[in-house]
Protein 1
Amino acid sequence: MTVNLKLILGAIIVSVLFLVFILIITAILRRLSHSRKYKELDRQRKIYRARLLNALRSGQTLKAIAFFSSPPRSIKWQAIEDVLLDLINEAGYREDIKNMLDRLGYISYYERQLNGSSIIKASAIDKLGKMLSESSIGKLAVMLKDKDPEVIAVTIRALSRIGSIKCLITILERLPYLLKKELVSRKTIKTSLIMFGIDTVPVFLEYGEKYKNPTIISIILEVLAHFHTKEALPFAMNNFKNINAEVRAKALKVIGMTAPDLEDFDGGRLLPMLDDPVWFVRLQAAKALGNIRYTKASVMVGGLLLDEKWQVRDVAAMALTKFGNASIDIFLRLLRYKDIYAKESICEGMEKTDFVYRLIENLDSDDREIYEKSKEILHIMGSLNFITPLLEYMKKGENGKIRKEIELIWEKVERG
Amino acid sequence: MRFIFASFIIGFNYFVGIYYSIANLFYTILLSISFFIVLRHIKRIRYSPIKDFRVSPEIPPISILIAAHNEKDIIIRTVNSALKIDYPFFDVIIINDGSNDGTLETLIETFNLKKIDLVYRNIMQTAPIKGFYYNAEIPNLLVIDKEKGGKADALNCGINACRNPYFCSVDADSILESDALLRLIAPVMESSVPVIASGGVVRMLNGIGVRDGMVEKINLPKSNLALFQIVEYLRAFLFGRVGWDALNSILILSGTFSLFNKAAVIAVGGYTVGHVSEDMEIIVRLHEYHIQHKKPYKIKFISDSICWTEVPESLKMLGRQRRRWHMGLMQSIFQHKSMLFNPKYGKLGIVAMPYYLFVEILGPVVEVLGYIVVISSYILGLINKEFFFIFLVLAIFYGVFLSTAGVFLEELTYRRYPGWNHLFRLLIYGTLENFGYRQINSFWRFQATIKYLIGKRDWEYVHGKGARLKTERR
């Protein structure tokens, strides 16, 4: 028993000591080798950066290929790759660098790596994307059929970085399958699609019309909303009454962003959407009508100040402040209403958008009606504890008449 | 009688031996899992989409919630650090939790804040609000002044006030790395399963050079106690949490720096006021709620998202902190005892919860009693030399290996301590940690167990944690 115990003890001690020793030695050796490697890499990056810039400026990159070529994975190879990837984003050198990357064998090297494990594959895809390798689009398209969601996500990003129409079409063609199989998150898709830029809007519109899948249509609408272009408006107008609520909301978002630029846009067509059963559709409708300053909608938007969802109430209050004095009546009517939440949303909206300062200025207005209504609104705000702008004006305001009016409002508020 | 006593003592010795073998086996499994996961993560960073997120309109806006109680000396540094974070859409909400040292006045003066009126919904009941402070020129900064209610209450108040779908809780004595939020949000962006919380790594701010709210120069602290804690944190974060994360069974995300989905937190009623360790409690409740309601979810730990925080440099404060942590752990596990060994909760109920009960909670008790009983048994001749040494090897020697492994993982991956002297000092302190520091820690946790059992469950405040003033001067 004692002998066995001694043996076990000895074995444990030796093993643990050995492991500790191995860890320490590995850490030290690794640090030494990395220190040397990165020092050399920094040195070579500096040298080749200067040489590459010279070659690029003199337009003699092709003649210098032999000088820059090196075996894959050598320090020189890595240094030149780092410099080229750093310079590729400078528009003037882009085509020359893409050409060099191809001739120096980087593209073919990383294309070969597409047969490796998931991590090697993903890393190679990322590199091909950064190298803006249009010749690799076919091979990258195959990667969209991979089973690993990470590989697919990296491929989508790589294609969007290359950024050609062919890349966009490759992604859009594969989109139904990817979404059906839930192989990639919608956020990843949208983030990547936006990178294609405003010039690709016609392609998005073409595929928007082609697909009937509401998820894809809403993704396309979201991307179009980001581009903020009038070209997207007809497509959005075709979809704002779609059966799918998300599509309706996204279409209204596009309309709200693009229609304000059009003088003849008829906001009346959007009015029915303020009664939509889905809250985020109502929200987007109110936002759109506020953006296009469709004052005829003020009564209906005002109705949303009593909406069951606070998000809708907030947006409605913000939208109304954009209608200027035209919304004073609406605010007043609702501020007389009993719903405290609605009243608070209105007051906060008026403070945040500085509409409250318009009301304060109205205290010196010659228009008696505007004056009376503004005064009443400010009084209600005061009674709801939204008093800071009033107090601030009393302290710092320049107009003596307004200050006096505020003092009267304040006294009335204090009397309750 | 004497025979029975001797048999009991010998039996206990065997129990200690077996207990340590099993506990160390657990640690080794966690270490092995973490080793592969961290290495894989490091490779994945090369093609990480973090840079794309920076310009993505799809990235969800985040509110950074900072609960502050008497943090006048450091609050400006923390706010400056938070405001400089590299993230497209965020706001910073400071909740002044009844400070009486001038924290609020310092904030008002520094950021030229004005009292404003805001709609505030008391979704989760908190101590009364005294005011909101805002500067239109810094629209993403809001200060809430409220009566004192504790950290959980302050965070609940921040959740009530924030309008963003995600919030990140950050301690008032902490500094975020500029890309910390981008890294923390990555799983939310990439995962097709909803990520309801994600936490990052917490590292020591003691000894670090700070300028304008950002980490300028990394150095090791001079204090031995802080150095021991560095090794301890490396071990806990780089192989403890990474391992549990791989099993989607993480039970602790540091309250110093964690991101949450606001709706998920509201669904479980927010932070528990009066709980000794509100950060663990919220995670356990999030797990429980989502499993009970059969909602798919993930809680992630991100090993490269970093927040620097101050740690105590005095034994008194460290003891308070550790007793509080341990008591919080016990409180959470015992409050949710129905999850223990419950197959309905999957790996969480079968592996993670029992691990925390038998290894983390019971560990200090076995360790302290083990030192007393095994050493006395050896002196009294009840056990032989070999058994005594096996105990020492299992209890202490293996700890040296685990500490070295923690430092090694750091070296292999993120290498935030770049100097040669950093490496050697960490290795030395990783060894020394097992001779004294670890035993004191076990004793504090043992104390916490006793206090918990006798019902003395008060919150022990830790103040003047580290070298804040020294850092500022530096």
Note: DSSP finds 14 helices and twelve strands in chain B.
Protein 2
Amino acid sequence: MKPRQVAAVSGLAALAVAVGWVLFVALPRWYAAGSLETVGPSTPDHPAERRIQARLFYVAEDGLRLASIEREIPYADTLVAQARRIVEAQLEPPPPPLASALPSGTRLRDLFVDESGIVYVNLSGEVTSQHTGGSLDEILAVYALVNAVTVNLPAARAVQLLVDGREVDTLAGHVDLRHPLRKNLKWAGPTGEESPSATVGMPGG
Amino acid sequence: MMRRLGHPLTARRFLATLPVLVTIFAVSSRPVPLSRASAASAPPRSPLDQPVSQGATRPSPEADALVVVTPEGRRVLPVVRVDGHPMVALDDLAALFRLAVREEPLAAGLSITYQGRSILLGTSDGLASAEGRLIQLSVPPTRQARRWLVPVEFIGRVLPLVYDQPIAHRRAAGLVVVGNVNVPRVTARAETQTRLVLEIAPPTPHTIVQEPGRLVLRFDAPAVELVPGPLSGDLVSGLKLGDAPGTVIIELGPRAAPVQTTAETAEQRTRLTVALSAATPPAEPERLGPRLPPEPLSGVHVDTVVLDPGHGGEDVGARGVGGALEKDVTLGVARRIKALIEQRLGWRVILTRTADQTVDLDARAALANNNKADAFVSLHANASVRPAVMGAEVFYLSVDEYGDEAGRASAASVEEVPTAGGGSRRLDIVRWEMAQVRHLQQSTLLAETIQEELRKRVPMNPRGLQPAPFRVLAGANMPAVLVELGFLTNPDDERRLTSEEFQNQAAQALVEGLARFRELVRTGRGPAARTSSGGLR
């Protein structure tokens, strides 16, 4: 083979490799990155993000019960991820005149679900240390979380609250947290325009 | 070269498309059912098309039955346990109570009709509406093998709303009593080592047959509800329902000599005393158990009340806007109540703490249990994020939150344990943490009397009387209530709570409430010591 031929073949080979790389590596990579961006877990302000309506629970104006409202929260693919989104949204401050039943500063540390549908919600210590200490607020705090999870996720059978990763007897000395708690709308009275107990859980209702 | 590179490149390309495939699959399979949001993202489907079970709900082979007693006779209603919940087939109920059942896909529920009156039972949320009332069942109906199953509590809580005869679900006895059928409740307890007292309410004709090793009580009734209390020593080895309807069998221990029975009827109940004899009655400590009414034959009974000043020590409880601390208010009121009771009623009063000290929640109920208190009152002051919330409230334990644990606890298992000298004896076992379930009716009565007395003297919260899942009440093996005296986060309430005048008024109300409660129980106008239905609406 003459040197010119060698150069030509090498050039062709190099070109082929370059074209191949572009076709089979660079383009798919670019394409995959683009796809991931639109469907993967994304920031709340991303325009293409899928959102769902979730019913969240807050202290009503009269302070005696929970009022519920529907808020948009990010959609998630799995039960665990969706439960996490719901609890995170529940911990956000509500629009006035509603007030959060959970002490400010309370964060979701972790969340997991066992095979029997019990959702373990692990909260940061503020839920105890910043609590008003009243039994009424304690009931409302506990059931805001329990109802937010169980009302929006029918697959969530009950909620076990944990504080800083540990099982606790109570948050502030009253409400028994030694067992997973089921949905209980007794503390969620009518909101004025509608009764949550009459609409919750009725698909399409 | 291309050819050699072809394989890895194709694989890589395939891998690169994987996230897309996975995402498409995840979106279309919709693994997370979202109650309301799903309607927008997926075509609405009938709730009746839903799979038989949601989440981990799965039928278990474990099954038992309820006995339904009607004026026509006895029927057995099979009970299936689904994921621990006792359920009955709606078909069986329909046949038994002549109900018409229809699935209502549009209303997402089941329509159950009796003589023109309807119940709508939500299939996804277990919310029943009937005659203008909404009742939340602990679990929704479940479809199993083309039959709808509804929780057993449906019978006692929802069906009576539309049925033309009274229906009583006596949970502890596994009985459903329909119409005006007399099913006497027989409460047994050892009064002394040698004396067994059976209280029969309402009074019912009966015969007593003495057989070797046992006594057979045959009641003129289609069924009997037996409430076994603590038994004494080894003279009585067991107490159970006989195989024949309406019979109770008292099994006598090997050392029990012939017995004598006496009966006296008063106040809507018959008191049947069974006197046993033994050469040397063994000295055995009395077991935990209900102790009502007081024991007139074993010496003078002194009523005992345990008062529980909430919080204490490091646990300050709620904090007032002006700085008042819950732990101080509760101790102040508890001391006043103690002084008043000792002065006026002469009862024994024990405080769970007498100073500013930390006391564990379990230790509070344990103190009451160990002192065999007749009543337990936990004192608290409340707090709210809304400063306008004010007024006193009285709570008794709510058991809805405990689900089936409460049912099991109220059914108090009787277990046989071996004894030192061979043989066995039966013990009434109640799980410590759910001891309160057996006293719920009396606790409700106590909460009511205290609430009524408070209302006469101090400002009340709009929610003056309610059930709540309070930890300190769950373990109390006697009537128990929790009183929230007012809201420290309300400036007016805080001023009152720290004033001598208010504390005296509140103490007065609690003493009157306790005295009235004891009087009602003593005269038999209150509920029996152990209740059949742990469930409270």
Note: The CA atoms of residues 10 and 20 of chain A lie 15 Å apart.
Protein 3
Amino acid sequence: MMVIGIGNDLRGDDAAGLLVARRLLEQQPELKVLESSADPITLMESWEGEAHVILVDAVESGGTPGELYRYEAHEQPLPAEFFHCSTHSIGMAEAVEFARNLQRLPEQVTVFGIEGGNFQAETEVNASVLEAIEKLAQQILEENT
Amino acid sequence: MTDEAQPRKTKNIKVDYLARVEGEGAMYIRIKDGQVEDVKLKIFEPPRFFEAFLQGRRSGEAPDITARICGICPVAYQMSACHAVEQAAGVTVGGQLRALRRLLYCGEWIGSHGLHVFMLHAPDFLGYESAVHMSKDHPDVVNMGLQLKKVGNDIGNVLGGREIHPINVKVGGFYRVPSKTEFKPLAESLKRAADQAVATIKWVSELPFPDFEQDYEFVSLRHPDEYPMNEGRLVSSAGMDIAIDGYEDTFNEEHVPHTNALHSVIKERGAYFVGPQARYSLNFNLLTPQCQELAKAAGLGKTCVNPFKSIIVRSVEILYACEEALRIIDEYEPPDEPCVPVEPVSSRGCGCTEAPRGILYHRYDVDEKGDITQAKIVPPTSQNQKTIENDLWNFVPQHMHLSDDQLQWHCEQAIRNYDPCISCATHFLKLKRENV
């Protein structure tokens, strides 16, 4: 099992995925955890050979900041709100669909989204998002260790 | 349809902006009564900031600072910077160190061209919004592109220390040179990549190309013995043949009201065209026999004046870079030292190398302490701006019969022919039609 936190440290709540990855490593240094952009080539190379991958990224779908979403991406395409939420022009959802088309998706892909409220450059992460980061890190640890 | 039957109308094809690490771009075309009235390509590239950042920095820092201008062609910035600083110091890097630089450049060409051919340009020809959409119907082709790109990145990893913004390049050579053993797996990957490049040339040659040939002035480096990358004289299809030192006497950067990026022109003649098509058309005889043969089989002549066919030229250059990289690895003997010493001299130095998108010029004024007092950087995309606009001026009137959507599609494709940095995203044009 591998966890990949996706995001951008310089854009407020977009750091959520990265912060989850860091929190997991603090608590379980032996876990396979990566930080990444949503670049599909990098993602596909990172998870090559992994049976189960957990992706964590910030989402901008108009929900309440800190709200958590979960999808099993190997079962069906990700819903629309996961698209175009990245500060990269290709987001995590496009990367997952890209990999699916190329038959390079791991057997099990669990996607966690954290609703963000602020993606402005050089801003702090919202308190509600920080709470969600902590909650999600604990949930991932409980389910997978 | 007669003119009388046509309502008088104005149509604007307007691209608002594209935000990517390589820069921001916008495009505007105004058509009135079937005539193109205005074309504006606006690119907001960051080099001006970098030129200022460089003032007061050690000249040895120039390769690493300027590499940050682009995430796709950092090697080009490192190479032009190294050559400029070395020229100022009166140092020439030769032998295996020179060959290793060329090898690193091969990696960048393979990676950058692989990205453009398969991910950015091919979807335009096949009618897909993006490579993600294209991958559903053409997974094998897209996987081949990804594998090619990876081989380019692998060269960066082994020789450059990491695939993006290499950390192993320095003025005078490298911090560390790899052993012969380290190159062995790379040679195997490159052999497979060369086979894939052959397949790529054939595949792209069968794409549908608009009939659009233009009279360009191509500009590239030319070296007597090798297809140009790091060294050579600046030559053009209109007879220019100058040393790199003469760049600023021959070319001029002009402020244009509609763009923050300077337009480059040849002082006496205006627009010119840099990049793979220019290199190919001015250096065909220096390609390997296999590249020449496959280019001909793909329908190219010794020159190529249809910018839509740049995708074939890039594919030929991918093959060339694979073959050249294999040659360099095959002949490689680790040098005794990873670099030659470069002592600062109060002087001016310039460097011009062939980035994937065309010539990249750097000039540094260095003081006696080795600090940069003035820097000038002219990236390829800014040099092609005027030619891109000219293509749109000429392309649109020939294609007025197309629907708005189709016209927009082809304009986007016409811009991507040049692989401008702004093309890194796949959907960036918005068509806004105004009928008045």
Note: Chain B touches chain A through 16 residues (CB under 8 Å).
